[in-house]
Fold Indole-3-glycerol phosphate synthase.
Amino acid sequence: MTELNLPFNQPTILDKIVAQTREDLVQKKKRHSAADFRSFQLYEAPRRDFKAGLRKEGCIRVIAEVKKASPSKGIIREDFDPVRIAAQYDEAGAAAISVLTEPHFFQGDLAYLGQIRPEVSVPLLRKDFIVDFYQIEEARAAGADAILLIATVTSGAQLSELLHAAKEAGLQCLVECYSRDEFEALRFSEVEVVGVNNRNLKTFEVDLHRGLSLLAEAPNEVVKVSESGLSTPHDIETVLEYGVDAALIGEHFMRQPHPGDALKRLTENFS
Ligand SMILES: O=C(O)c1ccccc1NCC(=O)[C@H](O)[C@H](O)COP(=O)(O)O
């Protein structure tokens, strides 16, 4: 994992999440082998095309996120009904729905994917911390169309292997990075959708322009996603000015009484 230069080498929040994820995996593997997932009903369901919906010339496409809590903000939404929120996003024109499935730090649940899937028509992104091939089979069995791979957590040969395994499993990937080093290390021949996180996961500060400047350097054929801290029409205008295709937005919608209406309001002049 990339060092984030914390004083005294303290573990970062990502270190903690990944350590917990690995602990969970030990227990999960005792319950089911990766091969067991092939008998799950949703494993055979046809997949929805995540990448195809993320690019529309001159328009912002939104990956709308279903998220109850986060390490930076604690509980974001007390009244949390993932299926109802996802159905609102679908009706409001989301290009895809990002579903937090990490349980300890985000209060997510893998089961949300299967609950949401029959109620919406758009692709579902499993938003989690993928470090093991097992989680790819698990994601497919749970009803995901795409997974998040985070370059801060998995890079180089391991990232390539996970990308390959996801493709074999019929899942598309959003590859997220934060730093210039991570961005420059990406093999764009393998990455079809790239995201840059605007939030520094050490300080939790958001810097939109840093992320957008990196995205603007990605090859034309790669779909570009700006992630985190977006909430105003001015933010969306800025994202589009940099030639970015899509925005991943969670907290802003989750804090509104009706997340679907908030999505419509935010995008009405850009879709
Ligand atoms: O947001 C956090 O606190 C966080 C901490 C550690 C790892 C990931 C984290 N966030 C995940 C995300 O990337 C966001 O959920 C996503 O980009 C949406 O951001 P926002 O619109 O700001 O909710």
Summary: The pocket of LARABZUK is lined by residues 13-14, 65, 67, 70-72, 197, 199, 201, 227-230, 248-252 (CB under 6 Å). The chain has one domain: 52-267. The beta strands are 61-66, 69-70, 74-75, 96-100, 124-127, 146-150, 172-177, 193-197, 223-227, 246-249. The first strand starts at residue 61 and ends at 66.
